[in-house]
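tool_call: predict_structure(chain=1)
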Amino acid sequence: MRKVAHILRKTALLAALALAAPLAGGVSAHAQGMAAPKLGNSGGKLPGDKLLVEAGELIYDNDHNTVTARGNAELHFGPRTLQADSVRYDRGTGRVFAEGNVRLTEADGGVVTGERMELSDDFKTGFIDAFRGQQTVERRTETVRTRFSAPRAERLNGEQTSFEAGSYTACEPCKDNPETPPLWQIRAKKIIHDDETHTIYFDDSTLEIAGIPVAYLPYFEAADPTVRRKTGFLTPRFISTTALGRGVSLPYFINLAPNYDLTITPTLLSRQGVLGQAEFRQRIDNGFYNIRLSGISQTTPSAFLPSPLGAGERDFRGSVESQGRFYINDRWRTGWDLVGVTDKWFLDNYRIRNQNITTDYFREATSTAYLVGQGDRSWFEARGYYFKGLSSFDWQKQQPIVAPVIDYDKRINGPAEIGGEVRFQANITSLTRETTQFQGLPRTSSYLFSPSVNGVSFPLYQTCTVFQRGLCSIDGLAGTNTRASAELSWRRSFIDEWGQKFTPFTYLRTDAFFTNPSFSGYQNDLAPQVAKIDDGFAGRVMPAVGLDYRYPFVANFGALGVHTLEPIGQIIARPSETRIGRLPNEDAQSLVFDDTSLFEWDKFSGYDRAEGGVRTNLGGQYSVVTPSGWYTNIMFGESIQLAGVNSFRRGDIANVGLNSGLETRRSDFVGRFQVSPNQNITFITRARFDQSDFHVARLETGATARFAPFLPLTVSAFYSYYEAQPLLGYSHYREGVTATATYNITPNWFVSGSLLVDLTHYLDVRNTYTDALSAYLSNPIGTVPTYQNPGRFYLSGASFGGGYQDECTTVSLNYINSPIATATGVRERNQTVLLRVELKTLGEADLRQNVGTATTADGIATVR
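tool_result:
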């Protein structure tokens, strides 16, 4: 044996050159590295592939036809790298034997470690003892690492790796004790990782949580982290309800192409048969769209209430949903959100979720299609809406179809002669409604009709007891109403040498109404008894000129901060608003007079109303900003009608303006007090005080705080009080408290909760009892109503939960107690426990279970 030792440090290139002649016919050395032995096309090598070697020592054994690299040996073949304490290459068999801290890095960045490896000369095939493998995938929002381990593994052509008695996990090893079992892992008799199909196969496997077996799976497969889309089964979902029975959903995902796919989800239900669902998704160059179909031919329709309380007479029930988003260019986009159902209970009964459905108190699905354009200083939007009520108490004939709604907003610099800013706004809105929506004043227990099922009465569709002005209002008028509005405005600010700021402004508002009310069918013919409504064309012109004046006094007290006292005055001159109460009001019903609207030119929230008359808005604010970050702001003011008709004194057909605090010549006082000791804590109070005796008419106060980094806690709490507004349907005051909190026990463990406490619910219960008792006394049929006091503090809604989250696992358990309005017209609590588990790279599962007992359920015959 002849031994030649060279210390090559970084490379073995000089030794390879010196020994080029003796290696003729075996491994030929070049200045660019050590060429791989020529074995034809075996092993998948290509001509020109070269084996580059770095080591502290090279040993050539011509007798046994081997080459050994020792001392931090590092071999490179194409994109693969092999590192070990010692590597021996057998030129006769083309095998590579690596021992001691062996590390193989794949072309995709994956890392394999072991105590000993026996590989082919291209590192694609062989055996690995004490196998440890890691695969790293970079995604847009995260880095995913998965790990394999086994006493022995076999590589086949670089395309498959087989592990005997192997384990798999996506969890990081414990830093303090790496031998501790990960939070979760799959142990299997055999695991096969196919790099060509990017699939991991598990045979005779067990899921372990913290080293404890919790579930046995005879066989399953999953895509590896490099795959975001792969044909196969998804995580099943289990269902258990009285009306549906017990069942399971088994989604099957079909990857049709890189840019479109199909998911088919059959759900087997013991009481209703098979619910079929299919969702098609496609992404195109400038956007995406999807379509989801759901349907079932029910085997037990009697599990649901009969019409109009449920779909008890229907055999087939289903829905169609679709969403689209398309970017035409940098400035224009279009799209849609559509929901269509055979009946309004279907989605809720079968627990089909849709992001376009609101569930707070009322259930409603909103379908819309739109076109939006945005310029440097302009905005265009055209939309159409269809609203679908999804609860028994919703009368679809009262829901409007709104199309189109067109908005345009453009701002430009004013002409050189006057400067400032010129703004043009335009709106066109058209809607159609089949049935007028009446509201009793105050809210009454009168309903259009009350069907009974099994002796239980279900009052539906609230209406007025007496149809006359002051006792009844119209929230929505039947017929077709179209309005076109345009407003041109100008304003410019001037600051004089004393620091006074003057902002003159002017605007011209025009509105054209085309009203075609319907006075036939249902209760539509009673609308003229409540209000005198225009029929045909009506116009309105509202010119205005005004001045906004501010004079900030600023003082810098150094460490005590910058103090600013700013008196504010505003005056607006306009003619009186015309045709109050003779025109529909659909988009200006939300009127809240507070600090945010005090200095608005027009305090109405929409185009259907236009504030008129000569009015001045007076107030001031005081603020403090310190170098330490302390911020305080106090604001106070009122609005005064100087001349003309007060737009808020005369209520329209929906009584908007009355009980608002603006209906008297001198309005109520409004104020704001805010303190922020730093950017993480804010206390804020908003209030409206009655002008006559200064009692509180409206109050909102609360605080938000984020105590990090000193305490991992985020909290918010707010108290609200609103006095009675009988002319808007609220016969008594409303009062409540909301609170939320999230506490991170550790960087991984957290708890959270929220509360909604209704402090005046007992008044609603008392009124309902009084009405029911009066009805019984006038017609003593059935049982005598009983009164049950719910107490002063009524927990209207709550949620509590907690969970754990790290790089590989998310587990959360939540209890949700949400208020619901039922077909009987009373509020109840929908109590749900939701468990969600996600094992990264394997999938997620959730279990949702209703708890407690409800008196009623929307559309369902019996509830337990």
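agent: The first strand starts at residue 29 and ends at 30. Proceeding to next step.
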